[in-house]
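Here is the promised in-class demo. Please do not try to memorize the tokens; focus on the logic of going from shape to residues.
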């Protein structure tokens, strides 16, 4: 038979964990949105090397600087700078070792046509680092 205090502690602990997770997911979503704005600023200024150097170490293990810059330059060459954007969705996953991963989808109107961008960022505190970036556009297929 459980004691009365134990029966009260469990729901309170669960509520506290949910509240903390809610704060973390909201913070991660905000950090992700800010990171997308910064990404677009760097992209529009053609500062592809800075995009790479500020990316997450995991992305850097996958792609060399020259590969990332070449891909980003190719996308820019076909699509041009960004224009209006509209967020399509956000998914936040809390990680076991602290922090979170946030995935964001944006409909982006580039100078030369429409596209859908998918971003994945690792968020620790208020800092988001790029893990992945995908751009789908019919212009890239031409």
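The designed amino acids, position by position:
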């Amino acid at each position: 038979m459980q004691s009365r205090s134990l029966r009260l502690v469990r729901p309170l602990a669960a509520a506290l964990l949910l509240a903390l997770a809610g704060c973390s997911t909201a913070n991660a979503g905000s950090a992700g949105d800010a990171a997308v704005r910064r990404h677009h600023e760097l992209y529009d200024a053609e500062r592809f090397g800075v995009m790479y150097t500020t990316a997450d170490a995991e992305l850097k293990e996958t792609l060399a600087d020259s590969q990332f810059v070449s891909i980003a330059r190719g996308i820019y060459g076909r699509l041009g700078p960004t224009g209006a954007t509209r967020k399509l969705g956000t998914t936040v996953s809390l990680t076991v070792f602290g922090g979170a991963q946030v995935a964001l989808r944006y409909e982006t109107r580039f100078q030369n046509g429409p596209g859908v961008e998918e971003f994945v960022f690792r968020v620790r505190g208020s800092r988001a680092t790029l893990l992945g970036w995908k751009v789908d556009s019919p212009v890239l297929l031409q």
